[in-house]
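INSTRUCTION: Work out how this chain folds

Fields: amino acid sequence; protein backbone structure tokens

Chain under study, with its fold:
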Amino acid sequence: MGKLSGKRVIVIGGSSGIGLCTVRALLEQGSQVVIASRTSERLERAASELHGQVETAQVDVQDRGSVAALFERFAPFDHLVNSATGGPRASGPFLQMDLDGFVGSFQKLWGYVHSVHLAAPHMQATGSIVLVGGALSRKCRPGMSAHSTVGNAVEGFCRAVAPEIAPLRINVVAPGLINTPMFEPMGAGRHDFFSQATSEHVIPRVGQPEEIADGILFLLQNEFITGTTLDIDGGSLLP
């Protein structure tokens, strides 16, 4: 078996999308997985889909007491993956944007800060943390300034704390445009949106959450990488 066999991994935001695909990949590697999410209904649905192979816990990443209780309950553990958005994120032209919405977008960063700060004391020294950022941090489309600014902050936070939490490792995976449930409200129109949005990418298609999960597992297993960002974006960052 591989390096993740028998390891206890907590996946915050693991009840849907990239997080849920990561949980499935970890189970295939023989990991002991805990899914944490804010929504009990999503937790129940995910546990049912996975035939009870996981433990579940409800958590609010903006509530430090809730986050601390999660890690205390499942300590000690080996790895942490956090893909939780922390709440709604604002979009639209910057000069017309509600600044409260812009500020609120940083709930994602604060959720990551809470989880890293409170998880580290309960983790094995050989463990690692992966945060899910986004390619918008370095190639921002008009109207996405809040997303981009938060993404930059997440990557900077990772580089800043990596030396301080060593020998624990911490990295960011930065997905491009990925076909996740957040696009389901678009209905059939999302396929046209994906085609148009990726038409000029080096790999001209939308990414799949399983492809991001593969990158997350790489970062968890590679013991010679920390404080860096792994881009999985179909070449969207290239000129």
Residues 8-230 form a domain with the Rossmann fold fold (CATH 3.40.50.720).
